Task: structure prediction
Amino acid sequence: MATVQGKTTLDSGWFAARFNEVHFNGTQLTTTNPPSGPILPWMEALVPGTVLGTLVKNKVVPDPFYGLGNEAILDIADSGRDYYTFWFFTTFHCKLSKNQHCDLNFRGINYSADVYLNGHKIVLPKGMFRRHSLDVTNILHPDGNNLLAVLVHPPDHPGSIPPEGGQGGDHEIGKDVATQYVQGWDWIAPIRDRNTGIWDEVSIVITGPVKIIDPHLVSSFFDNYKRIYLHATTELENRSSWTAECSLSIHVTTELEGSIHLV
Amino acid sequence: EQLQTQNISVPAKSRLQYTFPELFFYKPDLWWPNGMGKQSLYNVSINIDVKGFGESDSWSQYFGFRKIESHIDDATGGRLFKVNGEPIFIRGGNWILSDGLLRLSKKRYSTDIKFHADMNFNMIRCWGGGLAERPEFYHYCDYYGLLVWQEFWITGDCDGRGIPVSNPNGPLDHDLFLFCARDTVKLLRNHPSLALWVGGNEQTPPKDINDALKNDLKLHPYFEHVNEKGKGGLS
Result:
């Protein structure tokens, strides 16, 4: 049975483990040796979320926002980046029919990652505030059952926290394109993992041969807001090997009540 | 209220940009900030059908018709805002993020942002040392009428100030910063609550980054032309 077109969010069924406690590589994890469950070193993971969020969820560390809990958590400056370099693993079902395509989307990873899907490796470049969209059509399993592992690396310059604290710690985090409050500020203690993780939505999106990319809507106003024009632009990508004859429509409705729309 | 369909050909293995003929609306409900009126939202959906295949992809977004203008006032040095031609007294809250472990649920965003609206605020400023906020954050700002002042990831204390003085040249990889900025703009640009992009907190980014941001975010020449003739203006 083909998977229905559209978006499926991958926000459950994730496991995580510290990378140097896992004795398989990404190819093995997504082929012959997947984790069988939340058995050490693996634990249930919070995705989207951070490594520290996962450790708190599993009570490996205390909640940093209660009492002096944050003092009991090892800072990345003392532990080294490897300590907060984590594997995240999940499975998902996706079986494509002819001319369907599948994208694996990450809306935010801090800071970089190696993605393994069914044994294939894809390197995700650095940057906390960028989306990654991977065309995985040709590496999905024909039976629809797919194994996904993501090795997430912390920011390149997590920096250290001076004993007296201070705005932005030792300022090293400013060398990266990442959030900067994580080195501590006058209103917050340092975040020990610097928010490393798959911190925003993960999804798979099934489309046909042509997909819509990042539409842009703009309005212009005339005659004291009586006349208004909506300007819409979109990118379209045809991934097939033939010219696609398309019917492209835009539809603007206003919801009157519940699911009743005025057309 | 509007439906328009166009037939187009997309060559094999290619990517193109397509602009629809403009859609006309007569006196649509406008989107207003909290305290000034309703937050009227329209659902805009785009669908593409491929001959011989059927529906290939679809996209939808809640959209509000509103015009936001702002400028620095010579007398006070403060920034003055107008929405739909009406001056607005800004009552703002400063925002870093909803949770330091980035457990950013829709329910949490809804509750946090409704709280700002209940406090009679009409703007949230997303500080440059925090996040470029997520679409779910913007959705609830659209819904509850909170304008958003969104800063990029520059703070004086990490990029130019502090003891010892930090690197004033910002992040090491300027191209990466600009890539992230452009991608973030694409992610968030259709939300009616998005009022202002700001280079950073309490300072401007390094010159090359600042120039590039200003250039990329400037008004499209088409709309400058429209403004010059006094015919209308850009949202």
Summary: Helices of chain A lie at 26-29, 51-57, 76-79. Chain A touches chain B through 94 residues (CB under 8 Å). Residues 27 and 190 of chain A are 35 Å apart (CA to CA). The mean pLDDT of chain A is 95.
